[in-house]
Amino acid sequence: MLQIIQATCTNGELILNEKLSSELEGKTIQIMILEPSESTQPIDSQELKIQQFLARVNNYSFPVPPDYKFNREEIYDR
User: Fold this and answer.
1) How confident is the model at residue 42 (pLDDT cuts 50, 70, 90)?
2) How far lies 20's CA from each of 17, 24, 43, 71, in Å?
3) Domain coordinates of the chain in residue numbers?
4) Are 56 and 48 in contact (CB under 8 A)?
5) What is the pLDDT of residues 5-40, one digit of tens each?
């Protein structure tokens, strides 16, 4: 799960700009802290770019048979 939320640090505590999903209740989560960049690009735009990138990646994926096994040696035999 990837979710980008803005927060403000006040007296050593993070104050989120929005509520977290109820799915996260009781779970331990990892937080990555990014300082504001010089760009004026809003974080929503960055999240949109991530979603667009993942959609493009999905366009290049393809199904493999259930019994498929990756064989690294086969690649090097070429």
Assistant:
1) low
2) 10, 7, 17, 42
3) 7-61
4) no
5) 888 889 999 999 888 888 889 999 888 887 776 554
56/70 Cα distance (integer angstroms) = 23
Tokens of residue 21, six digits: 């999903």
Nearest by Cα to 6 from 39, 42, 40, 30: 42
Paired tokens of 14 = 């993070």
Average pLDDT, the chain: 82
Q: DSSP characters for 11-72?
A: TTEEEESSPPPGGGTT--------PPPSS---HHHHHHHHHHHHHHHHHT-----TT----H
